[in-house]
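Our collaborator T.R. sent over the components below with a one-line note: 'Predict the complex.' Nothing else. No constraints on interfaces, no templates requested, no preferences about which chain binds where. So this is a plain run: every listed entity goes in together, and whatever single assembly comes back becomes the starting point for the next discussion.
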Amino acid sequence: MKKRSLFNTIMDLILILAIIATLIPIYFLVITAFKSYIEAYSVPPTLFVQKFSLEGFEILYKYVGDISRLFTNSFIITILAIVPTIIFGTMAGYAFAAYNFRFKEVIFVALLTKYLLPEIILIVPWYSIMMQLKLVNSLLGVAVVNLIGAWTIFFMRSYISQIPIDYIEAARIDGASENKILFGIIVPMVRPAWLVALVINFIWNWSALLWPLIILNTKDNYTLPIAVTFVRYIYGSTGDSPPHYPALAATSLLYTLPALILYLAVQKWFIETFIKVGIKR
Amino acid sequence: MYIILYLLPPIILYSIFYYLPLALDIYFSFTRWDYARPPVWIGLENYVKLFNDPLFIKSIYLTAYYVVGVLGGSVVTGTILAIALNRETKLSTFTRVIMLIPYMLPEAAAASAWFIMFAPGPTGYVNYLLSLIGLSGGSWFLDPNLGVPMLIIYSIWKNTGFFALVLYAGLKAIPKDAIEAAYIDGASEFQAYRKVIIPLLRPMIMFLIITTIMSAWFVFGSVYVLTKGGPGTATMLTGMYMYLISFGQYNGGYGAALAVVNTAVILGFVYLQIKRFGVGGYGM
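Returned assembly:
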């Protein structure tokens, strides 16, 4: 009995430690966002906001301009990419889950390799393609490389293959067309998986920094992460240049909120579906 | 017929934005290209330059160090956290929600939070907290000796929740009998985990390592926000170097050569891993 409680005590301590370690950087981000420049550089630093200030947000507005446009641009590139990713992913996932055809394994593996190789190895060729398509410095150019996702295809295949094949067979015997089976039977059943795919793809596209940083070069096209890096380096372009801390924190906070709210809104459901689909072999 | 219809979008999009660019990477790696003028064919010049480029060698060395640190650290913290979660308590359910927040936070924002927290000098939060217990602080991300270890710790913080969730899902899938048997043999909970349960998690750990190794090798966003490869070149990891060459110095040909060589190195490494240990059972 004694050993068991020792084990539980240690495990509880680990959990508490994990919660603290997770939240501390976020706490400092939030308080810094509402400090004035003078307070942010006070010695010693204040652990609670002494005098509430919106100076950080004002600096962002002063240097980058209309803040709502940053949100609009970020939402545009995210939605442009997510909608096709989920529709195409469901169709391809259904094809892999419900059919047998020649070269199935080969095509599947060929699609999966993209999951492993990151975008940074493709930036030079992508830039050349965007020059040809006249999409440099356009939001469409950011989204167009992300219209399909290997993970989403893979995830939808896993989820759809849990649906009993009898449903599909029965519908086929009744003479339903394949489109009718997919959109009438499969789609309503995969809604939980859609939510997870939506959240994951939202987070990925919302986080996109490298590719937008390369092809977006005027302020009217900036997305939120570009604004964060812009503010980070307003007072010098090298890593050791000190930023305007409140402005950096304010921009990061604005950028974080939609992702954080989305995650917290669906978390219970998200974790359950992840565990259910994730462990399927 | 429908199969073709359903598979056509990924096949077309992949061909244009993935397979064609992979081929173009190889082509550009034999050219000099500044984006303004047409590429000029220069044969193997980029590759010769690459193997005599001290910064390239340094970036490979630093990146290997970073990847080993991140993977090793995240597997350890993720496993410990997954074990701690594997008890049905309210605290455990609550931690499960909180622990995924760093993974969900956009990279640029999370890195900013860390940059603010570890600000150098007496105005920094961590330096102040350390001074309260009589320790002297440091420059953290801006210290040439601490830069890469700090990037490693940041990435472990970012990854741990996801690693723990995958491993927790793995723990749930282990048959109760295997664990019961260990207890009947008189094992304590620590022993049961060490001897029975953790070895059963190996496929999940392999899955995590193989999928994370690529993204860690080519890490970019956090480095760009935190150090930009500095001070000097102290944190010049591969992803940062590729970006600087390709779009800081507008040397697309050399950038493509870097992409080709790094991809070959890392694919070769992953291939050896898979051949030796298998891909692992996680959904594959």
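Summary for T.R.: Confidence is low (pLDDT under 50) at residues 280-284 of chain B.
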